[in-house]
Amino acid sequence: MLIVQKYGGTSVGDCQRISNIAKRVLETKKQGHKVIVVVSAMSGETDKLIGYTKYFSSLPNDREADKILSTGEIVTSALLAIALNESGYKAISLSGRAAGIKTDNIYTKAKIKSVDTKNIEKYLDDDYIVVVAGFQGYSDEGYITTLGRGGSDLSAVALAGALNADVCEIYTDVDGVFTTDPRIESRAKKIEKISYDEMLELASLGAKVLLNRSVEMAKKLNVKIITRNSFNNNEGTLITNEEQIMEKPIISGIACDKNQARIGMVNVDDKPGIAAEIFSSLADANINVDMIVQTIGRDGKTDIDFTIPKTDIALCRKLLDDFKDSTQSIEYDENIAKVSIVGLGMKSNSGVASKTFSTMASENINIMMISTSEIKISMIIDIKYAELAVRSLHSAYELDK
Length: 401
Ligand code: ADP
Ligand code: ASP
Ligand code: MG
Fold this sequence. Notes:
Layout lengths: L1 E6 L7 H16 L3 E6 L5 H12 L5 H8 L1 H16 L4 E4 L6 E3 L8 E4 L2 H8 L3 E5 L2 E3 L5 E3 L5 H11 L4 E6 L20 E3 H9 L7 H10 L3 E5 L7 E4 L12 E5 L2 E10 L4 H11 L7 E3 L6 E9 L3 H8 L8 E5 L2 E7 L9 H11 L6 E5 L2 E7 L3 H11 L5
Helix pairs in contact: 1-4, 6-8, 7-8, 11-12
């Protein structure tokens, strides 16, 4: 079999841990499989590198930032290759570029355009364990790019897809995908199997156990993902097609995202084209706008509220400066959280919205914004109630049972 294994930041957090990972990788290799290992930077390393770039500017040059950010994964990949070599096995580390991961040139959040597997295949054929630095690729211009936070998951799935791997194992610091973040609710249960669509929603809504774009790509390329704990041998969670899941719970999981900020534009001129102008300006700067709420216009004025990733606030402020003459004031609120419930069964069950809102009401939690899709309901609330909201919903939907 061809197996892709990805190890996250905590799993490669120091040299001792890298040495433990080397043992796990070798167990797989000794079973006769071809192995590609994708690694993250040591935990905390990427934050540290970002800190360096912010020392000089709140908006550092993206291309330069990527060059710095990519080094975290370079270090762990080479350390793991050295550890594997030391055990007498052939192993080689490859940067994103050497692994053939080609991206667009949107630095710091690049999208993968293609993977040229020639180099990797050459080493696999020669019986090497190939260790790839996750989170990075190279642009049309030939420069280093990074794929956005949590991007090593995407590197792993992209390689698994391009090489037609039998499985992509994502190793992390929890046993798999749980009904909610086990660090928020200790009674959360591990899910045995979950559909790509539900996992995509959970991941997009804050369950960072998998990067949403990696799930999207896995679905498209039909990559079988298993998330597992790198610190034990427990069975993990399989992410697969909806048809493979016999019983579809109404609610599969609850997600919480504290990395969003709410922008409130008060008394904006209510005239055709204004929303288009605002959101085009953000889109052109690659700012990902999530929820949008506009009130009914009164006296030629309207309020527009929306959410964006906190990391884009500085850039957003700069862009919205162009609109200060068409609005009374602009609020930037970082103290919010988005809490969401996700489940395929919502499609065919009524009353989910009312139960969700009643649960919030019974805890006296005010809901600022709401958005829904076929299989999810999301609410923006005050960040200080995030954990309480997650636990109350988890128990209201009996996910601990
Ligand atoms: P890695 O560094 O291995 O990529 P991450 O920190 O990105 O790991 O993701 C793992 C973390 O995701 C867990 O430690 C857990 O706190 C968090 N998490 C959030 N939601 C969930 C969930 N529904 N199931 C499992 N883990 C979750
Ligand atoms: N090291 C990167 C990050 O912290 C990528 C990853 O770990 O997936 O976001
Ligand atoms: Mg991660």
